[in-house]
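Run folding on both entries below.
>entry_1
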Amino acid sequence: MRDTDSQPEIPLALLSQVLLELRQARGSQRATREAVIRYFKSGIAGGFTVGSLMQWLFFWPDKQPSVFSQVGYSATEIRDLMEILKEKHSAQELGLRDDQMPPNPSQARAVNG
């Protein structure tokens, strides 16, 4: 899998696509969840790690204009979505084991801060 330290390439096309999908899904928890799951599936299929995908989605290019912030999601909505993504069936949908699920945003900030 790609490592962000050795492979600084950021999947701009993937981030652009999820941004468009999230704008369309705004207001629908189900559509938002499905857009994020597609993002992770595509990213994992592209060889990126879950951690890198999380960082790009929630913190790239920085915390203020991140993909989720650009769509207008609040911190509470992002936390709620993270809880949805941690559900066991979401891990299975992503093709991941439970121990491969992403950390919550505060843990990711501590690692990347």
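>entry_2
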Amino acid sequence: MIRVYRWDFSAKPSARMPKKTHSRRDLLVDAAKLAASGICGTSLLSEASAFAAPAPQTPLTPPITAPSAVSPRGGPIPYGAAARSDMLVSDLSYRDAMIANCQLIVPESELKWLELRPTRDEYRFEKADMLIDFARQNGLEMRGHTLAWYGALPAWTNEISSRAEAERELTDHIETVVSRYRGAIPSWDVINEPLAEWPENESSFRPSIWAKQLGPDYLEIALRTTAKADPDARLVLNEYDIEYEGPRFAARRKALVGLLRSLRDRGVPLHAVGLQAHLFSSRRIDRDGLQQFLAEIVALKLDVLITELDVIDYELPGDLNRRDAMVAAFADQFLGAVVDVVRPKAILTWGLTDRYTWVPTWFKRRDGLPNRPLPLDADLKRKPLFDAINQFRHKSA
């Protein structure tokens, strides 16, 4: 394969319009496409990346002052948020808020296939490199998201037509990306959302090009390839809809435990489970079911991270004080159930401020008021949700 590494910051990909569906996860995929379609543009030239000069597969120097992804015993749990590279450049108040409030960041779209691989033979690292620069310069750590997912794939992946081709593309992508950031990204969401919406068992996978061509082997291939590319990286399997009452959510917990046990029994490298925790205010947290699930994760000797926390508030009352209190209380229920069983290695929200959130794209309030799903409001002021998270950061399991 001939790899072309482009560094043309002024190039803009063609606009991509999402299609409206009834699946929340499909909506998130479309939202990811929207995010990926906006490039930082020529303004990035004022923040020229330090990674333009090295060879594309040269491992990057780790950020010397970055805190460890593993929370120190007795210290507060690290807090972080999904970051947008374009806003870090164009909105200095947002940039300052990320520095002031976070210990780690995760790219919202910059490390997804759609962003990195616009064509089969092309890798575009400029925006991911810029985030690494930002993290290093400000003593933050950066998590990697994501290497094997059914969503946010470029159109050319639909042309993959055989098992051999799928394995070649998946392994080449992981080797190239993980090797490039070896030592600079210590934790990766290697597998993202593998389970079907309502799984019958641990072998019920969500349709994807990887599941179609490789079957369940794609998980093992991705995890082993990542471990080989960076033996020191912490490997995470990230999943959603684990915490609620109801038969579908119970089925998801059962299937996920079975899948994790199968990987362990086969000696597949895996260190942690990521709970996304997109919390819908119209659902009820299944405290007993969630805690039993977490106890089984602990028994498998796997760590737990909370990776994408926010509270979907489009059905809550309009009064801001009341709504903010209800959002914080809902997060408090979830975090309380988790921390009583296991101390998460990190707590991340999917965004830091209501100024930039995916939620109103698909869950706009009928009363026309802005959504408020995140720890800081649109003016970057801390809300009760911030205080709720901070409380549990300092609570021991």
